[in-house]
Amino acid sequence: MKFTKTIEVKNIFNKISYKYDFLNNLLSFGLHKLWKRKLVNLLEPLNGEDWADLCCGTGDLAFLISKRVSPMGSIVGIDSARDILNIAKKKSDQEKNKFIKWEIKDVLELNDYSKNFDGICMSYGLRNLNNFEEGIKKVFYLLKDKGRAGFLDFNHSKKNSLSNIFQKIYLRLVVVKISKLFNLSPEYSYIEKSIRNFPEKNELIKIAKEVGFKKAEYKTIFFGQMGILILIK
Ligand SMILES: C[S@@+](CC[C@H](N)C(=O)[O-])C[C@H]1O[C@@H](n2cnc3c(N)ncnc32)[C@H](O)[C@@H]1O
Fold this sequence. Notes:
Elements: H1 2-16, H2 20-27, H3 31-43, E1 50-54, H4 60-69, E2 74-79, H5 82-94, E3 100-104, E4 117-123, H6 132-142, E5 143-154, H7 162-180, H8 185-196, H9 201-211, E6 215-221, E7 226-232
Parallel strand pairs: 1-2, 1-4, 2-3, 4-5
Antiparallel strand pairs: 5-7, 6-7
Helix pairs in contact: 3-4, 7-8
The structure holds S-adenosylmethionine.
């Protein structure tokens, strides 16, 4: 079961990689950039710190963080889907950004805890992992003491709440319909299912506290459509 989800997710992101940035901009009306910047502002990466962008995709967060932690620190973008990571690499080549390191790896298989990070971020990644608790645990072990982590994702709002209804309408009538124009509707239909299986905010906070994080806060943004989870070890 676990194995199947990993393969399914990897196939989805390899398949949509060539249109990923274009559709992200179109489907969010460019707003995903603001939400990612908000996450980075909340995390306050500092020059000299070591950071990781897990499930980095085409690397938006890694690029934002590289500006904050360079030249003394480091940032690595990690993703398990080769095609989407190649787009991140191509973007950094075009920008002549040699500062960001890119690594192809399944986040749940990161087992080297010898070099701990000051900070870890993940946007729209946690929801795609096989096991959310394992993902949060992994982040805990990869962080230094007092390290901070931030996760941006769709907010799983209460069933039949206004934001839940709006989210469903948006996903079905905007996301799936537009992605259909590019023959990618099965891949984008997956988002609704993945949000349904994703923990609600109180559950995410509970998991983080059980894992050992000292501080866990969740903020909803954009009328409850998205959420940011901030953790401190
Ligand atoms: C929705 S995309 C988000 C990409 C990017 N962070 C962003 O916000 O635009 C989810 C990414 O998570 C990656 N991913 C999913 N499961 C993963 C895993 N187990 N290990 C590493 N990457 C994973 C996918 O390949 C994909 O690039």
